[in-house]
Structure formats: structure tokens, C-alpha cells
Amino acid sequence: MDASFLLDASTILMVETTTSEMETPDNSEVVQDMRDRIDAITRPVSVDAQEPPDADYDLPDAF
Predict the structure, then answer these.
(1) CA separation (Å) from 20 to 3, 5, 6, 24, 62?
(2) CB under 8 Å to 45, separation ≥6 — which residues?
(3) 8 A C-beta contact, residue 63 and residue 55
(4) Is-contact 34 27, C-beta < 8 A?
(5) From CA 39, how far away is CA 63, in angstroms rounded?
(6) Is the pTM of this model over 0.90?
(7) Fewer CB atoms inside 10 Å of the end CB: C or N, the chain?
(8) What is the 3-state secondary structure (H, E, C) of 23-61?
């Protein structure tokens, strides 16, 4: 199994090995969501000042 992590400078990471026979979970939806969020931060969409914003910034899932 391969694992990828997004870490910042103060993250502490502990790794242990196991002989578990459990099947690897399918995290493809979560990984795609994280990639979309990172993409939105690193490549923001240009906004037309004439159009009102369509995001409700008070909602946690608005981004």
C-alpha cells in the first residue's frame, strides 16, 4: 500500500508497520476533493466585479 500525506512545518507523523490482511480502503473521492481544494487555492478563478458572488461564506462547505 502507498500512502500520501499533506504536511506543514509543525506536523508530527508517526508510522508503524502491520501484517494486517484488511483490504485497502478506496479513498479516491476524498483524494479528489483534497486535490480540488488545493487547486482552488493555488489557481483561483478570476472574478468579474460586476457579478454578485454566488458563495455563501458563512457556510463551512461553501468552498
Answers:
(1) 16, 21, 24, 10, 38
(2) none
(3) yes
(4) no
(5) 12
(6) no
(7) N
(8) CCCCCHHHHHHHHHHHHHHHCCCCCCCCCCCCCCCCCCC
Residue 14 dihedral angles phi and psi, to the nearest 5° = -120, 135
* Residue 53 CB partners (closer than 8 Å, separation 6+): 47
Is residue 12 helix, strand or coil? coil
The type of residue at 30 is V
What pLDDT is attached to residue 28?
92
pLDDT band at 29 (very low <50, low <70, confident <90, very high): very high
The answer to whether residue 61 scores a pLDDT higher than 70 is no
What are the cell numbers at 59? 457556510
| Non-local CB neighbours of 56 within 8 Å, separated by 6+ positions | 62
